[in-house]
Specification:
This protein is an alpha+beta fold. It has 40 helices and 34 strands. The strands form 10 sheets. Strands 1, 11, 12, 13, 14, 15 and 16 form a 7-stranded antiparallel sheet that branches.
Length: about 1450
């Protein structure tokens, strides 16, 4: 488990304000500051000069427009009354905060507004008093509520504009969109006013740090020095107020700090005022604040002195609402009291003991006091980057049209200055502007709340997005080449030097859909907040707060999805213009022009939009976007999500798609809520409460001794989400890939053949997740990587359904890690041949591997020479093969009769056709070593010219050196090659026709009759066709068929046996099995493949692909030595409902596409149940006491060499307990049986990914995996063995609790673990009827592992078994089924049959004929035809009731894909 700390809610608590070292902000630029009003406007009036009215005392008359044109409100009337507007400034009453124009009869009076209906001289103030037919027009105003603070916002200026004279609304002014001149004559006239904070007697200084907690910087995130100036963006002030002025409410603000790597840190602060001592002021400061008279320097009475402070929290998470509640609680705590607990206790409690919400506990309820609490919810799970954006705030303040105009400005990288009098709005809108261009990322300066100390950035010659308080314009002259966005007036001001592109330059249809969506959302927002303000807010706060919050979250998601759809339409098809890095990249390989076809992309767009796209392609944000798409980065999951959105959208539509691009993941959906109690109050010595002694005159200086350590760290650890281990991000699937895989699985679950390939694809995905661990342990890294590449090729050749690109991605990452860029290029080409377009994550790992790895030398002359020399040597070896064959034949002819002579050369004869319809033409393969109790028919050689003669004694052959195990599965190997003539190529399971030609060899066995001799003769006659059918080609190799020997996975193998031959035609059963004159009574050569668990159908036999699986280990152990540990696995499970045995392919067919469902469906009763993997672990290791002396005992009962046919047969007759010259079964020193759930590949992959993410990929190579995660371990072993994929997982068993500790004196070679996969159950039910294949073997005196069935009474005689086989041989399967049903219905028959009739007949036929002589697919067709034939007479329901139905097509396809290579 990683030691990485879990997410922390709050990183720092900061107190900012005026310090002794603070420098003034206004003096250095005071000469450039324009004159600003010192007092707000408190009254407005209308005078009529034609009636003799003069301007009242203290009022100012507006006589001209902004450009100097004379103003007359009724200039177009014949009886011009000469009406003018006047205003008055002061602080004697609350200021005006809003102005308006009221049309009587058309408009309703707005709540809180007053209508100015008379002049100061009691005449009518109708602005349109031309006659009775004219519209009566009045001014309206709204005044600030009592009591008002000193810094209350108010109207500070009023002006009139005349658009006909070319005048426009001045910057930062609000315009009332109602014409003051409503007559038919005269120019239109509009009223404009400015809202600002009129300050007088104020000194502004740069803010400094007053306190912080913790005092030490964190290693991962040190406290930035600029935090205080962001807490007080307009500076730390000293203000002189009238003595009776009320304190204003604290102002909440947010800001964002961006690091050099692009990481964002979010700040939340509140600003407040507190008293400042006069003693700290100088005389000059007192004069400027109006505290001293100018003439005699006497103190001015009736004034108070205040300073502005701020408290702030810094976090990596934008929980602005939560932080606002916490900061307001701390502020109220500081101005109230006395308290028992100090302020520092609450601060440290919130920082240490409030955990970050996790998926398991998504809600944290924090009780700060008996009256204050806050709810902390987990962030919404979204593939988009985390931000504090609020698109609804953007729409509310700017509207849809201005939002689209700003989208154009951001995409073309303009200079944007956002300003507002509300600092908390700036950050939300600034974050929305940056987030609306996803997947592009803003690369230029970005300061959503810019302090005055950093205002020089506005003069930078680069694009920027800067938010600033509107009072900045009262202090400084703004730059001319900047686009101003006024959030308070919903206006965008463009200078003549910097004009925006029109929204018409955007793609028409996507822009039209975007505008329609934004207008709809804006209308819904108006409806949500419509109605009386007080009543609506009360309703939202009390009765409908939760519903309103959820509705707002849904609208927020829809607004973001609207912008996302536009960007997906605008950039559609961009991936086809990405240029992969060519081999041996040039130094300019990271240039955008070399990574992306810019001109090709531009030409693919419509000509009308080339101007917009031309500017977009030249921006830094598009260049960075191309680099992010071309190289692996932390943004890969976000870009992969954008690619899925591009695939979903249809740019030609003029309405949004039905499928939403984003779905709301409610973080409050969990039921678990963690309750955090407030800090405990200390008690006195006698248990009484301590007195309240903490009272503060202002916000105190933090005292370190009062900051408490974490109260209960276990609570925080309990609620933390498990952090990811430091593993590679390549194996992780993104959420989008998981969703796509889930949809693919749901789609294919109803298609039988595709469902099997889907399961197979997930199985290979499991192996590729394990691949980094396997390569790390492999001695030859390149060889292991090449193996994985070959696996990918074979997977594509066999059309395996890959639900994602993780397989390719992992291999590309490993190529970069181990310096193999050429192989990475081959993997990319393989993807393109497969028709797979790599997504952003895969493409990034490819370019990273190609760019960062060391390429081979450019000259290939040395490599070509070595290749030529290799070809010459191989050619000479090919010419020498006929000579060697001739020498071997001569040696075989001259061999003495009593020696161990090999069989005579076999003539090339046209074999007869088998019952399965296959013809045998090619020469039989060279014999090979097989396991005890079974005979195999290997097919790794086609010619008789293998190295080493057949008669060569095994002792004379050199022992190959131990090398790395060949991880390539037999079915995935390359073209056939010659064998090395080792013992693994020798077998005495030869054809009977060849034995007849050998003469004395066949005479060693008894000729007496055996229980099966009559059946053999019958089958020989039945299977001899009158005419030879045309030759049929051998079956093509199937990728998923078969597994390799456990020794192949757990022990090294010979390097000379890397290539196996093509699958050979099957042999006739009459030739190889059923010749009566050569059938010894107890010989095991009757069946090359047994159906009992003691015979190996997978590890030592030919799989369905016809590729041999077993090869002798190269670690010093011979094939005759038992392994140290042998593991038997079986997936055959019993249904709890009907008691039937459900086999592997039926279990696979019953799985669902749900990656959390462990159940499968019984094919007989239809009930769901959890299948199990049954495991039997046999420990053959010597006890430690035996091995302490260092001497190893000699193997007992060592049989003869397998090439000696006579001795083997004689030994078979003399000792029935031995088979093939070896003990039938060694007695294990320790035997253990366990069972674990058998997981679907979909479920297992999900669990494995979680394990790798939490524990790290290295955990898969540790023995603790066996004991701590047994379900995952045993399922991985099963699937890897099932598919013949290499792994070191079996070796981990040696270090687990299932195996006794190894002796201290170990042999030079490590012990071997052999894994065998069984088709049937491990331990039979003694009360059930024995299966037919076991009875056949018991009648044949073949040793079987399942001895518990031997004394069981059953009605199945040998004649019955031979009759069933005869019907099968005659292709009369329906008669075999009918015979079976009659026997079951007879008196004394078994009541409960665990296996279906199909399974009984299949296993019996396999046991009698052998796997190599039976085509299971042909048998399935015949059985299905027989079932349909019987259904006409007996009925399908009756046959299903008696379990005579064939397997479903889904199960057959699963067996075909995975291969029927299991033992029984």
């Amino acid at each position: 488990m990683s030691d990485e700390k879990p997410p922390q809610l709050v990183d720092y608590f900061v107190v900012a304000g005026l310090t002794d070292t603070s420098r003034p902000l206004e003096e250095e630029s005071q000469q450039h500051r324009p004159a600003r009003p010192s007092e707000p406007i408190t009254d407005v009036a209308v005078i009529i000069r034609s009636q003799g009215e003069e301007v009242p005392h203290g009022f100012t008359c507006i006589e001209t427009t902004t450009s100097g044109h004379p103003v007359d409100l009724n200039a177009g009337l014949l009886n011009n009354p000469q009406m003018f507007i006047c205003y008055k400034r002061g602080r004697d009453k609350p200021p005006l905060i809003e102005l308006g124009v009221h049309y009587e009869g058309k408009d309703r009076p707005k709540p809180g507004y007053k209508i100015l209906d008379t002049t100061p001289y009691s005449r009518s103030a109708n602005l349109n008093s031309g006659g009775p037919g004219h519209q009566r027009t009045f001014l309206t105003y709204r005044r600030a509520a009592e009591p008002h603070g000193h810094n209350t916002l108010g109207v500070t200026d009023i002006c009139l504009v005349m658009p006909s004279k070319g005048e426009s609304t001045p910057h930062t002014f609000c315009r009332v969109d109602k014409n003051l001149n409503t007559s038919m004559w005269g120019p239109a006239l509009f009223l404009c006013y400015k809202i600002a904070m009129a300050k007088a007697n104020t000194l502004v200084y740069e803010a400094g740090l007053l306190g912080r907690y913790p005092e030490q910087d964190s290693e991962s995130f040190p406290l930035p020095e600029s935090v205080p100036v962001f807490c007080l963006p307009m500076g730390a002030t000293i203000e002189s107020w009238p003595a009776d002025t009320k304190y204003p409410l604290p102002v909440f603000s947010t800001f964002v700090l961006t690091g050099a790597s692009g990481d964002k840190v979010y700040g939340a602060a509140i600003q407040f005022h507190e008293a400042f001592p006069r003693e700290r002021l100088s005389e000059k400061q007192s004069l400027r604040l109006g505290l001293l008279s100018v003439v005699d320097r006497r103190p001015v009475a009736g004034r108070s002195l205040q300073t502005r402070k701020s408290i702030c929290v810094l976090s990596h998470w934008p929980f602005f609402d939560v932080f606002r509640k916490f900061l307001m609680f701390i502020y109220r705590y500081s101005i109230s009291g006395p308290h028992v607990l100090p302020l520092e206790t609450h601060i440290s409690h919130f920082m240490h003991n409030v955990p970050f919400p996790s998926p398991q506990r998504p809600r944290i309820l924090v009780q700060m006091s008996p009256y204050d609490n806050l709810l902390l919810c987990r962030p919404v799970s979204s593939p988009l980057p985390l931000s504090g954006a609020s698109f609804l705030t953007l729409l509310q303040n700017l509207g849809p049209d201005n939002a689209v105009a700003l989208l154009v400005a951001v995409l073309t990288e303009q200079k944007l200055l956002i300003h507002s009098l509300r600092p908390d709005v700036l950050t939300s809108v600034g974050e929305a502007l940056v987030a609306m261009i996803f997947p592009l990322r803003w690369q230029c300066p970005y300061i959503p709340l810019c302090p005055l100390a950093l205002a020089d950035v506005l003069c930078a010659p680069v694009p920027f997005i800067v938010g600033i308080h509107s009072s900045y314009f009262d202090l400084y002259e703004p730059p001319r080449d900047v686009i101003f966005v006024d959030l308070d007036t919903n206006t965008i001001f463009q200078s003549e030097e910097r004009k925006l592109l029109s929204p018409r330059s955007l793609p028409r249809r996507p822009c039209k859909v975007l505008l329609a969506s934004l207008h709809s959302l804006s209308q819904q927002l108006d409806e949500m907040y419509s109605g009386p303000g007080e009543e609506a807010s009360l309703e939202l706060l009390l009765s409908d707060a939760e519903a309103a919050r959820g509705r707002r979250a849904q609208l927020e998601l829809e607004a973001r999805a609207a912008f996302l759809r536009f960007m997906a339409c605008a950039l559609r098809g961009y991936r086809s213009f990405l240029r992969p890095i060519a081999p041996a990249p040039a130094p300019a390989g990271r240039d955008a022009g070399s990574l992306f076809a810019l001109q090709g992309f531009l030409k693919s767009r419509e000509r009308a939009y080339h101007r917009f796209y031309g500017q977009l392609l030249r921006t830094q944000l598009f260049t960075q976007f191309i680099e992010d798409c071309s190289f692996a980065s932390d943004r890969d999951p976000c870009l992969e999500f954008f690619d899925t959105c591009v695939d979903k959208v249809q740019a030609e539509l003029e309405k949004p798609e039905d499928t939403p691009l984003m779905e709301l993941d409610d973080p409050r959906g969990g039921e678990h809520t963690v309750f955090i109690t407030p800090p405990e109050q200390p008690a006195g010595p006698d248990g009484t409460e301590l007195p309240a002694r903490y009272r503060y005159d202002g916000f105190p200086t933090l005292r370190p001794e009062l900051l408490e350590p974490p109260r209960d760290p276990l609570v925080a650890q309990l609620c933390q989400a498990r952090s990811s281990a430091p593993s590679s991000p390549a194996p992780r699937r993104t959420k989008q890939e998981m969703k796509v895989a889930q949809r693919v699985a749901q789609k294919y679950s109803s298609v039988p053949d595709m469902w099997a390939k889907c399961l197979l694809g997930h199985c290979y995905g499991l192996w590729f997740l394990y691949l980094p661990t396997h390569v790390r342990a492999a001695p030859a890294k390149l060889r292991a990587l090449q193996l994985a590449y070959e696996v990918l090729r074979k997977m594509e050749a066999h059309k395996v359904v890959l639900p994602d690109e993780v397989c390719y991605r992992i291999l590309m990452q490993l190529c970069g890690q181990y310096g193999e860029p050429v192989l990475s290029v081959r993997v990319l080409l393989e993807m393109k041949r497969a028709g797979i377009v790599p997504n952003t994550i895969t493409y990034g790992y490819y370019n990273k591997a190609v760019l960062e790895s060391k390429w081979p030398a450019g000259t290939q002359s040395g490599r070509l020479r070595w290749a030529k020399l290799r070809n010459v040597v191989l050619g000479a070896a090919q010419f020498r093969q006929p000579l060697r064959q001739r020498e071997r034949r001569a040696a075989a002819t001259a061999a003495p009769p009593g020696g161990r002579a090999p069989p005579a050369p076999r003539p090339s004869l046209q074999r007869q056709t088998t019952w399965a319809g296959r013809s045998l033409r090619d020469a039989p393969p060279a014999p090979r070593l097989v396991k005890s109790g079974s005979l195999s028919f290997p097919s790794n050689t086609h010619s008789e010219g293998g190295r080493g003669g057949l008669g060569e004694p095994p002792a004379t052959r050199p022992s190959p050196l131990p090398i790395a195990p060949d991880p390539l599965p037999p079915r995935l190997r390359g073209p056939p090659g010659s064998a090395d003539g080792s013992l693994s190529d020798i077998s005495f399971a030869t054809d009977e026709s060849d034995r007849a030609d050998e003469g004395p060899v066949g005479s060693g066995g008894p000729v007496g009759g055996t229980p099966r001799r009559g059946l053999a003769a019958k089958l020989q006659q039945l299977l001899s066709p009158g005419k030879r059918p045309p030759l049929r080609p051998a079956a093509s190799t199937e990728l998923p068929a078969g597994t390799r020997d456990a020794a192949d996975a757990a022990c090294p193998r010979r390097g000379s046996e890397q290539r196996d031959g093509e699958p050979l035609p099957r042999r006739g059963p009459a030739e190889s099995l059923l010749r009566p004159r050569e059938r010894p009574e107890s010989t095991a050569s009757e069946s090359s493949v047994s159906l009992g668990s003691e015979l190996d159908l997978s590890d030592t036999s030919v799989g369905s692909a016809g590729v041999p699986k077993s090869e002798p280990p190269a670690d010093g152990a011979t094939g005759q030595e038992p392994p140290a540990v042998e593991v038997l696995l079986s997936s055959c499970s019993r249904c709890q409902g009907c008691g039937a045995l459900v086999y592997d392919e039926e279990v696979m067919a019953g799985w669902t596409s749900d990656d959390s469902n462990l159940n499968t469906t019984c094919p007989f009763c239809g009930r769901s149940f959890v299948p199990f993997l049954s495991i039997e672990i046999q420990d053959f290791q010597l006890p430690p006491s035996t091995a302490e002396d260092g001497s190893l005992p000699a193997p007992a009962a060592q049989g003869p060499v397998l090439s000696d046919r006579r001795r083997c047969l004689a030994l078979d007759e003399a000792e029935p307990e031995l088979c093939n010259g070896c003990p039938d079964a060694a007695v294990p020193r320790r035997l253990e049986r366990v069972a674990f759930a058998y997981l679907s590949p979909l479920v297992l992959r999900k669990e494995l990914e979680s394990l790798v993410e939490n524990e790290g990929g290295e955990f898969l190579a540790q023995p603790e995996l066996v004991d701590s995660h047994p379900i995952i371990y045993w399922n991985l072993v099963w699937y890897f063995q099932r598919l013949g994929l290499p792994s070191n997982l079996p070796r981990l068993l040696l270090g687990s609790q299932h195996v006794a500790p190894a002796p201290q004196a170990q042999p030079p070679n490590s012990p071997c673990v052999r894994v065998r996969l069984l088709w049937d159950v491990l331990t039979p039910d003694p009360d059930s009827c024995p299966p037919l294949y076991v009875l056949w073997r018991l009648h044949s005196n073949v040793p079987t592992r399942l001895w518990s069935w031997r004394p069981h009474g059953h009605p199945f005689s040998l004649a019955f078994l031979e009759a069933v086989l005869s019907h099968v041989g005659l292709s009369e399967v329906h008669k075999a089924i009918a015979l079976f049903l009659e026997t079951l219905a007879a008196p004394g028959g078994p009541r409960h049959l665990q296996r279906s009739i199909y399974r009984e007949i299949l296993f019996l036929t396999l046991a009698a004929l052998g796997r190599d002589h039976m085509d299971i697919a042909a048998f399935d067709k015949k059985y299905k035809s027989a079932y349909n034939k019987l259904a006409g007479s007996l009925g399908k329901e009756e046959l299903r009731r008696r379990r005579a139905q064939p397997p479903s097509s889904k199960a057959i396809d699963c067996r075909k894909s995975f291969g029927a290579t299991l033992e029984c």
